[in-house]
């Protein structure tokens, strides 16, 4: 893995940096000041469409999460880049990323020969399975968008870029976008849906997970989500140890002391562990003591231990369409009577949860939550 030789970025003017290493020279990662961001994603030189492949620049590190936020079955390529000589400071809840950090997330779908996009849990051709060495074959995928989070002196800036049909460039779309797509499952059944690219302000709907501070920050690359193995070009290693070894993370305790969410698909883990990990990443950014949904009293972040605050036999703050006229958030043994199940299974704008980021129902996720609640002992009488 090559590193970039560059000074710590202090904000202000654009700094174009010089690669250190062997082989064919490439344009280095480029930092642009907050008020002069480029229209084209390629001007950042992070992830680029080159010779029919989506490739990462040297020093741009891919990563994955134990359980990821559901986004209409889209696959995601996540990357992080930090200026040379700087590192993120470990924190159990949040890392303190250095100024100049750029986090990217590219949303795409495997694509069928007829142009429809595929609903599949087969990630064997994804970057998360070591494909980073050769790049993502653009003949086999449909690129949708790439979102950037850039750490400035005054906080994080969110920038959404939308890919063109030729998959040669992504263009800045501050107002967001919407794409009509056909999603085909393994049985050949197809359904139309609208993929919504959020605007820059909507990004704060999820990323400002502290309602008082209202400052956006990364919610995926945190210790409990990153604590897993990843297949890099030179082998498989725990991501946090890899970040530590490459200088991207400092102050980390022994790995055994680092929190760890499970994959919601890992059937070797308990139903509770899988469901709590799923709720944490999909709901916990709002449903936490300082989040946008703090007034609901429903806390779905991983640290919550109080069953009532978790929703067990908890009545809603407001009844009506949002509750499906059900009486409690979670009714042990009865998902059909639980508001939580009603909201995650809904696509109605007045009822669905999460409110942003999806147009479809995540069938595998809703089945998991049904099984978890059905397994709970007791009742709400």
Keywords for this entry:
20 strands; six-stranded antiparallel β-sheet; 381 residues; alpha+beta
Description of the molecule:
The chain has 381 residues and is α+β, with helices and mostly antiparallel strands. The protein has two domains: 253 residues, no CATH class; 109 residues, no CATH class. The chain has seven helices and 20 strands. A six-stranded antiparallel β-sheet has the order 7-8-10-13-14-15, with helices on one face. Strands 5-6-12 form a three-stranded antiparallel β-sheet, with no helix packed on it. It has a three-stranded mixed β-sheet with strand order 11-16-17, with no helix packed on it. Strand 18 and strand 19 form a beta hairpin. Helix 4 packs across helix 7. The longest helix is centred in the last third of the chain and has 13 residues. The protein is globular and about 65 Å long. The termini are far apart.
Summarize the structure.
With 381 residues, this protein is of the alpha+beta class. The chain has helices at residues 200-207, 223-226, 239-245, 271-283, 307-310, 339-344, 363-374, and strands spanning 4-5, 15-16, 18-19, 30-31, 47-50, 53-56, 61-63, 75-81, 88-89, 102-110, 117-118, 136-137, 141-152, 155-163, 170-172, 177-184, 190-197, 229-232, 235-238, 249-250. A hairpin with a 2-residue loop joins strand 5 (47-50) and strand 6 (53-56).
């Amino acid at each position: 893995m090559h590193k970039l030789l560059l000074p710590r970025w202090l904000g202000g003017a654009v700094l174009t940096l010089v690669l250190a290493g062997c082989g064919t020279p490439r344009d280095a990662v480029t930092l642009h000041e907050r008020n002069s961001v480029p229209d084209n994603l390629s001007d950042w030189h992070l992830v680029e469409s080159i010779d029919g492949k989506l490739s990462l620049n040297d020093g741009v590190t891919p990563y994955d999460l134990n359980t990821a936020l559901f986004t209409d079955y889209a696959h995601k390529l996540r990357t992080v880049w930090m200026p040379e000589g700087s590192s993120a400071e470990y924190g159990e809840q949040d890392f303190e990323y250095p100024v100049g950090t750029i986090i990217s997330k590219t949303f795409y779908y495997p694509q069928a020969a007829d142009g429809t996009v595929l609903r599949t849990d087969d990630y064997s051709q994804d970057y998360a399975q070591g494909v980073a060495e050769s790049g993502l074959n653009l003949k086999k995928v449909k690129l949708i968008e790439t979102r950037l989070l850039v750490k400035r002196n005054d906080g994080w800036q969110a920038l959404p870029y939308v890919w063109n049909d030729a998959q040669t460039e992504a263009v800045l779309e501050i107002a967001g976008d919407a794409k009509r797509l056909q999603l085909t499952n393994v049985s050949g059944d197809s359904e139309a849906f609208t993929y919504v690219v959020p605007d820059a302000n909507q990004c704060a709907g999820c990323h400002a997970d502290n309602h008082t501070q209202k400052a956006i920050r990364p919610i995926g690359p945190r210790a409990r989500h990153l604590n897993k193995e990843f297949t890099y070009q030179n082998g498989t290693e725990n991501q946090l140890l890899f970040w530590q070894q490459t200088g991207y993370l400092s102050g980390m305790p022994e790995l055994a002391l680092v929190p760890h969410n499970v994959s919601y698909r890992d059937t070797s883990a308990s139903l509770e562990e899988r469901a709590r990990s799923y709720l944490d990443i999909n709901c916990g950014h709002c449903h936490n003591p300082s989040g946008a949904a703090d007034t609901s009293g429903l806390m779905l972040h991983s640290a919550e231990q109080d069953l009532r605050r978790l929703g067990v036999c908890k009545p809603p703050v407001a009844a009506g369409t949002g509750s499906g006229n059900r009486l409690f958030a979670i009714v042990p043994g009865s998902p059909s009577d639980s508001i939580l199940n009603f909201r995650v299974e809904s696509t109605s704008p007045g009822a669905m949860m999460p409110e942003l980021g999806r147009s479809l129902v995540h069938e595998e996720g809703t089945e998991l939550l049904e099984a978890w609640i059905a397994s709970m002992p007791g009742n709400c009488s």
